[in-house]
Specification:
The structure is a single chain. The protein is about 55% helix and about 5% strand. By secondary structure, it is mainly alpha-helical. Strands 1-2 form a two-stranded antiparallel sheet. A hairpin with a 2-residue loop joins strand 1 (about 30-35) and strand 2. It is elongated, with a radius of gyration of 21 Å.
Length: about 160
């Protein structure tokens, strides 16, 4: 009987999670942005240039695309990736390392592997949050964005107005 390496199981699980996340419908990328103080609601990946608005979308989604719409789309993708891919995988790796350490059976090699997984997950999440906070602080310092909550998405329309 062949015993599978726990590392290969984790790799298979990560591949399964990443591949399944690629097939999530893009409708979950619905978002909002501001035009002249008015909130525009859109669905899908592209926030502009549609022939007609879908149910629940604002009429402004039919306007032609501008460079600022690209920044709106990138902000939406980054926010979506953080919320639905990066954070769940990071926390899943923390849980997996905890379960692996529980079932090591006193084997020091396996316990070192679980410590490596745990520290890698924590360092990865710390780097991601630190980068987000640094960009937020930088944008706030140069006066482009006024942040009430440091972890909220940046308001692109304040430094790239859509007309």
């Amino acid at each position: 009987m062949k015993i599978q390496n726990p590392k290969s199981k984790i790799q298979k699980l990560l591949i399964l999670i990443i591949l399944s996340s690629l097939f999530l419908p893009l409708i979950s990328l619905a978002g909002t942005y501001q035009i002249d103080g008015k909130t525009v609601t859109y669905q899908g990946l592209v926030p502009c240039g549609k022939s007609q608005p879908a149910p629940g979308e604002s009429v402004e989604v039919t306007m032609s695309c501008q460079l600022c719409h690209l920044f709106v789309m990138i902000t939406n993708i980054v926010s979506w990736a953080l919320a639905y891919i990066i954070l769940p995988i990071g926390f899943l790796m923390i849980v997996i390392s905890g379960l692996m350490s529980f079932f090591t059976g006193g084997d020091p090699k396996k316990f070192e592997q679980t410590k490596t997984i745990l520290t890698s997950a924590i360092i990865g999440l710390a780097i991601i949050f630190s980068a987000w906070i640094l960009v937020s602080v930088f944008l706030n310092a140069i006066g482009v964005v006024h942040l009430e909550n440091i972890l909220t998405p940046w308001n692109i329309s304040t430094f790239c107005p859509i007309k």
